[in-house]
Amino acid sequence: MSLPRFYCDLPLVSGALLPLPEALAHHAVRVLRVRDGQDIVLFDGQGGEYPAVLRVEGRAVHAQLGEHRPREAELAGAITLVQGLPSGDKMDWVVEKAVELGAVRVVPISAQRSVVQLSGARADKRLAHWRRIAQSAAEQCGRNRLMQVDAPGTLAQWLREAPQGPRLLCHPEADLSLSDVLAQDPASRHISLLVGPEGGWSDTELQAAGQAGTTAVRFGPRVLRTETAGLALMAAASALLKW
């Protein structure tokens, strides 16, 4: 059985007796029922992890840290998922599964056809929620680095600052398949996958993406839901690139 794993946003030092933050201590002791003397694992998102022993004395909760272990569970390359905001709580699912599939970054896009449009305090609250989901998913799946979740923005904003490497936009009527495009650049070490909301990208967004060097790709003969498409593309791309 795997040990309970916790992200800790504090400097971790081998051999230290670390007082745990209140929220982490509550989650470990009150929610997961971890007991005094039980083995756990801590990581700080900078790479690697620390085996530790939980120490509970009254309301004080500490972790006795062991030696740093340079274990990683990252892909050999980097995948950024640029996701048009879907309706309801579908973005929660996308963020969680993107962590499990190894994405380094998720960029929520307030697309022209997105039912959900976020701004101001509402956007800040949703972003904090997604980042908590990403943290929990990393704890669960064994990653020792946190996936970045950006604040919601427009497609035009992302295109102006897009990273180097192939930028592939999922479109059911594209001429090229995902495998066709990746075969042209098998040495890529960073790819960006763009998935529209339920209504798809608008003509204006498609034109802007094309002018910015984005390549439209199809993924099989079926039309996938927005919350499925990006995850399927990530899994397929990492397999095709042998990441």
Automatic annotation (TrEMBL):
Residues 78-237 form the Ribosomal RNA small subunit methyltransferase E methyltransferase domain. It comes from the Bacteria. One of its GO terms (molecular function) is rRNA (uridine-N3-)-methyltransferase activity. InterPro entries: Alpha/beta_knot_MTases, PUA-like_sf, RsmE, RsmE_MTase_dom, RsmE_PUA-like, tRNA_m1G_MTases_N. One of its GO terms (biological process) is rRNA base methylation. It is an enzyme of class 2 (transferase). It catalyses: uridine(1498) in 16S rRNA + S-adenosyl-L-methionine = N(3)-methyluridine(1498) in 16S rRNA + S-adenosyl-L-homocysteine + H(+). Residues 21-58 form the Ribosomal RNA small subunit methyltransferase E PUA-like domain. CDD domains: RsmE-like. Its EC number is 2.1.1.193. Keywords: Cytoplasm, Methyltransferase, rRNA processing, S-adenosyl-L-methionine, Transferase. The keyword S-adenosyl-L-methionine applies. GO terms for cellular component: cytoplasm. It is found in: Cytoplasm. Belongs to the RNA methyltransferase RsmE family. Specifically methylates the N3 position of the uracil ring of uridine 1498 (m3U1498) in 16S rRNA. Acts on the fully assembled 30S ribosomal subunit. This is Ribosomal RNA small subunit methyltransferase E.
